[in-house]
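Researcher: Next entry: TRPV5 protein (Callaeas wilsoni).
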Amino acid sequence: IGNTVLHILVLQPNKTFACHMYSLILSYDRNKEGPGSLELIPNNEGLSPFKLAGVEGNTVMFQYLMQKRKQNLWSFGPLTTVLYDITEIDSWAEDQSFLELIVSTKKREARQILDLTPVKELVSLKWNMYGRPYFCFLALFYILYMVCFTMCCVYRPLKPRTGNRTSSRDNTVYVQKMLQESYVTYEDELRLVGELITVIGAVVILVLEIPDILRVGAAKYFGQTILGGPFHIIVITYACMILVTMVMRLTSTTGEVVPMSFALVLGWCNVMYFARGFQMLGPFTIMIQKMIFGDLMRFCWLMAVVILGFASAFYIIFQTENPENLGQFYNYPMSLFTTFELFLTIIDGPANYDVDLPFMYSVVYFAFAIIATLLMLNLLIAMMGDTHWRVAHEQDELWRAQVVATTVMLERKLPRCLWPRSGICGREFGLGDRWYLRIEDRVDPNKHKMMRYTEAFKAQDNYDKGSEKLEANGDTLCKKELSALSLSRNTSRTSSHRGWEILRRNT
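Model: Predicted structure:
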């Protein structure tokens, strides 16, 4: 019952009342230390009161609980050394990490806890000591891996075509080699080494990604921008395309260029995932993700309807015409592609003025230009501008959350020998087996004096404004202007004199 009440107090809107009641209940707890403590009993979701305060974004309760956990080591003048208990905060030995819970929640208030002590210092320590070097090494390794895969695709086994052409539009001169012909020369064996590296890399990607999907859940794993959801979809699809290409190569099936092309595009687009490790590029990837999966996905439905309708109309109009003179609409798939290019203004309106054009082509193209170019494209630009304005206010906050998510991910993937536990064990100070983070705070002794100066200047300015209003209401317009001019000069001297007198006296 006491643990349930503690969880309810964390969710209370009256933070001051909740903190007092929280202390009152804990004062009756018999097992204040150890696993039987009320503060360490989780709820049905596996969250202790401390973790629940972080997930709900209750910064007041979180700071209150952290103040209870801290230990003042020593104090000398303005310098104070404090030990903060990071037992539940550190994700090193936690199955349900506190940091991962914060970055995976949809509440913006929860991400503000990342700027509080000691979470901010702990994340900075982890990222600077281990996270950034390992992440940069992983980015370099992935780029070299993609270069290897690209070279294997560029020099894939091809042979000259021996069959006759069946159409004047047939432009194929090389075809894919069979499996027995693909690995004969020394260059083929060198390419085989690169292909084996590519396949092994794809298998490693699937082995690393699938356990996280099963642990977190597909909806949460792929749907969170901070956790890198879109990039997880990209890298898993890339690995699947690599395996499909391998199967087609081993079975000598033609058409391996389709999965190979998809893999090249997806693999190189996944390089943008590593931009989150750099403060200059990280916020831009957030902006791109928000626009693609927000505005662009909704806009594509409207664009598909417009392109389908007008492409069908163009194909019907030119269905009876000679395709040699107007080849942009010679069949239905080419009509769809040409209409897509017209929609994005990549090409101008295809028309051969040496022959007679159908009258309906001019009418349909006029309507298409008005709807697509003038209306829908400008609508897309306006939508993206609005999204940019909304995301710009929180892009730095989202980037810091991405850094935390990346740090937790690396800490889970890497062996323990490469990532030791952060902090200091409490045994060194006689505080048990808990782990602490040592933070040195400096209290500015002039802070209270500066507050006094500010209040003095503010009070004097308010007095001057009140005097001006009283003087203005009591005199005529001419006298009011003269008195206001003289009063402003006198009060400015008086305010400046009083302020400098306070500074001189305190100095």
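Model: Note for the record: DSSP finds 18 helices and six strands in the chain.
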